[in-house]
Amino acid sequence: MNNKEFCEKLNISEPTLYNWKKDKPFLYKIVMEYKNENLEKNKNLSKIDELLKYFNDLSILEKEYYLSEIKARVLKKQIENKE
User: Fold this and answer.
1) Between the chain's N and C termini, which has fewer beta carbons within 10 Å?
2) Which long-range contacts (CB under 8 A, 24 or more apart) does 42-49 make?
3) Could you state, in chain order, the average pLDDT of each consecutive group of 10 residues for the chain (83 residues)?
């Protein structure tokens, strides 16, 4: 999302955003951090959607297999971190 689209979502003008950058740097920083966090969340959501799409194409047995494998990997990681 570019700044123009972001400003539209906030219902402000682009000059307002740039004025905040100049006159209210702390507010600008907060707003831009929010924007960047949302961009990252959206990227992750699209990856999750893709994963779910492929997962739903698997048979029940294949789903169980892959879920078990994921659980085993997480448990292994937790065990390694405790040592």
Assistant:
1) C
2) none
3) 86 93 94 85 79 92 95 95 83
